Amino acid sequence: MSLGIYIQVPFCQTKCTYCNFHTGVVASTRFAPYAAAVQTEIREHRLRLGNVSVNLPDSFKREVVDTVYFGGGTPSLLDPLHLGAILNAICETFVHEFREITLEADPETIEPAKAESWAAAGINRISFGVQSFSDVELKAAGRMHRRADVFRAVPILHAAGIRNISFDLIAGLPHQTPESWSSSLRELIQLAPQHVSIYLLEVDEGSHLGSELLRGGTRYSASAVPSDDAMAESYDLARATLYAAGYEHYEISNFAKPGFASEHNRKYWRRLPYLGFGAGAHSFSGQQRWANAHDAAAYVQSIARGKTPVEQLESVSPAQALEEELFLGLRQLAGIDLERLQQHYGVALGERFMPLESSGLVEREGSVVRLAANHLSISNEVFVELMR
Question: Any idea of the CA torsion for 19, 24, 26, 29, to the nearest 10 degrees?
C-alpha cells in the first residue's frame, strides 16, 4: 500500500470573491512559525493522534509515502526553505519513495530562484490557479495575477526542470462570455499543461460572491455571473476542446495528458489512506476520518502547547463507506464495479441504479456503471438521486 500526505498552507495574498476555503491574508512573519508547527505535527503525529482516540493502523508504519500535496491557500508564498524543511520532516518520519510532490501556486508568485529551489527540494508538479486568461474576469474575481503572468511563469518552471504543470479554470466567473471562455481554452492549449482541472463556479454562503448571488445583490459583479445553462455549455465545450487536444477525461473535473493524472488526488477518489497536516487539513485512515482546527494561529498555539489540533473525528461505518464508494467512484469516468462492491459490502445495488439507468443518467456495461457522458455537467443532481 501507499500513503499520501497533504500539507495545508492557509495563507493568501488576497481573498478571491468566489473562495469558500478557510484561508486568510496575514503578515509573512507568521509563515515561519506555521511551517515549524507543521514539522512538529508531522514528527509527533502518532503520539498526538493517539491522545485523541485516532487509531492509526499498524500498517501505516510500513506503508510508503509516495505522494505529497501542498495545498491552500497559496503554498508558493512560503519560503522554499520552509517547504524543504517540511519535506525533510516527512522523510525523517515516514518510509518514503516520492513519485509526485505537488505545490499549488499562483502565477504571479513564480520567480526563477524559487522555481530552482522547489525543484532542488524534490517538488516536481505545480498546480496553477489560473482560473481565466481574461484580465477582466481575473480582476472581477479578485485575483492578483493577470494573463501575462501565466505566460511568464510557465517558461520559468520549464527552465527549472519542472515539466508537470496543472492549470485550473473556472467556468462561470463574472463577465465570462462564450467568446472569453473559448479564448481561455485556446490559450490554455497553447501553453500545453500536462493536466487541467475545470470547475464550475460554486454558489454558497461561504464566499463573498456566492453569498451575494444568493441574496440577489450586485456587489462583486454578481449580476455579471453567467447562467447555469451557460456554465454547463462552457463545461461541455471544455470537454470537447481538451479531448481534441489529447487530454484524457478521467474524473468529472480533471483531464490529463497520458501518464499525468494526479496520483495524489486519485487516492481521495479511490478511498486510499492519506494524512493531512496543518490548519484545516483532513485525514483518512480507512476506518476513521478527522480534521484539524481551521484557525492557523490557534493551530500553531495548539502544537506549541503539546496538544493535538484535531477538532473533528468520526468512525466510518460500512454504510458510510459504501456511500463514499458510490459517490467517489462515479466521479471517475471509469465508473464503479457493482459486482465488487456487492461482494465487499454484502448488499444488492442493481435496483438502486435502475431508475437512473432508465432515465439515461447512468450507463451500464456488464457490472460497471458510469455517469452518462452527456450528463456529466449535472452530476450533482445524479448523486442526489442516487443517495435517496
Answer: -110
